[in-house]
Amino acid sequence: MEKRNLYLHTTPVDEAKELYNKEIKKCVSVRKEEVPVQDSLGRITAEAVHAVLCSPLFNASAMDGIMVNAARTAGASEEHPLTLKRGKDFKVVDTGDPVREPYNAVIMAEDLLGVDEDTVQIIAAVSPWSHIRPIGEDIVAGEMLLPGHHRIRPVDIGVLLGGGICHVQVTARPRVGIIPTGTEMIPPGQEPGEGQIIDSNSGMFAALVQQYGGVPDVSPIVEDDYEKILAAVRRAVADNDMVIVNAGSSAGTEDYTVHVLRKLGTVLIHGVAIKPGKPVILAVVDNKPVIGLPGYPVSAYIDFETFVKPVMELFTGAAPEDHPVEEAVVSRRLVSSLKHREYVRVKLGEVDGRLIASPLVRGAAAATSLVRADGVCVIGQNLEGYEAGEKVPVELWRSREEIRHTIVSIGSHDMIMDFLADLLPDLSPGVHLSSTHVGSMAGLMALKRGEAHIAPTHLLDEETGVYNTAYLRRIFPDREMALIKGVTRIQGLMVKKGNPADIRSIRDLLRCRYANRQRGAGTRVLLDHLLKKEGIRPEQIDGYELEAATHMAAAALVKESGVDAAMGIYAAAKAMDLDFIEVGEEEYDFAIERKNLALPFIRDFIRALQSEQFRARVREAGGYGTEGIGEIIRV
């Protein structure tokens, strides 16, 4: 079968959800099962739960002391202490002991005087029911303890047990079949060969299914063969409550999922106006929901959250859970299409009381953007995007409190930012580092707009040969600025192991394939300076326009592709097992407004920079110097 799946129409997101959920409600039935209360954490109650016992079960002493008849204590005072006799006027009780007739009050042990084996003295009268927990004070038999559709928490388990409940009716976990497809796919743990891709999506789907109250059933990978996919879907539908078919949902000649689902059932939607995630398939087979998700991990995740999760909530009876939405200032221009609702992953931090959103890589295959994201900016289908500095709605994936204690760093990339992000929570619990890599110049502009706490920078001034300070004076003429001294690092040309292209100097870039850094990056500024010294025009370099966002990304292009060389730091070359031709040493520092030096988490950042743990990691990485690290240079 060589038919292509052409998208003649894409359905708006909300319309697609409404249409599909309306159809699915006809075939989804919520099943119940009984489980021991001790095993019910996280489960959804299928019906209201009522107590069968009171708590406490009897009138109980709330204190250690003696139980008395309140009337017998009348007249007691400091001037006229009253003596009570054991067995006649009182009995000793501990907290939780029953209090029975003729006693109806408790006097705390601390309020007793002249205690011996047979008598005590009291200096104040007590009223009936003093320090007594009456029967049913907490729980009354027959009262509702939990409503239906309630997710059971640890505190709920304690109340259920206290109310005499040992088993509870909960909604059954739906079984969700997961079918990974693709001839090029291999299971995790297997060494990938040429053109092979590790199936990471199935593991993510299985975890999401468990998180949302289901039981995953992952099938072996199915190659791109119509009949084999057909058979796999038939089996999965028979064995499960709903099915996810991963990959093969797009417009390729070997994308068979939609053809299989049309053969076996009804395809309600193929193609939704969502980015990433357009080629989602919403179908029904044998009265069960079957959803085809695209293969790119970000697309797959966004579609799972948007379309699979609501169906699972129908099965479990769980109330829909939405991420809180807050207003943030976007640090970079976001351009979007009127054709889609776009989900842009962002890093978040709070600067001068404003929530700042820094967009991450937007590609559908950029799975790490999901890991690094603190939230998502949703650009509506009727919007062309947002300008830098504009206020945008952001769904929070982390708590606002955690975001409030996050250092916002926007600027140049270096591996030490990862070291610091890992160390900070250990050295200063609760403090986090959010690092967005846009290049030195773009970082300084973000700092100028008040969108970052610090801006890592390594910009060489050609006239003076000095790093960073000249740029701060030019860009911030009216502000009190400073540099937190960072590391010195060795820059050079990263080349393949063994240097097969025999690259020795900048001039050799004229005869090889090069990978550059993004505009505004300090490494690119350095390259341009070196090219100018050699009299080489940028357009003479093959690959000058090929941009990598980080040193490690540039090193990976040299390691794994047809690129012969890229400018980068020694530590990146070492990490990727590349050869390295040193060009020179540069200074990688942190620009900051002086007023922010007093912020507690900035002081934590400086302590982390100067810590022995950080120095040890830098030594291990290689190519760095730490003399003067953490010193403050007023600019």
UniProtKB/TrEMBL annotation:
Pathway: Cofactor biosynthesis; molybdopterin biosynthesis. The keyword Magnesium applies. It comes from the Bacteria. It is an enzyme of class 2 (transferase). It catalyses: adenylyl-molybdopterin + molybdate = Mo-molybdopterin + AMP + H(+). Residues 177-314 form the MoaB/Mog domain. The keyword Disulfide bond does not apply. Catalyzes the insertion of molybdate into adenylated molybdopterin with the concomitant release of AMP. This is Molybdopterin molybdenumtransferase.
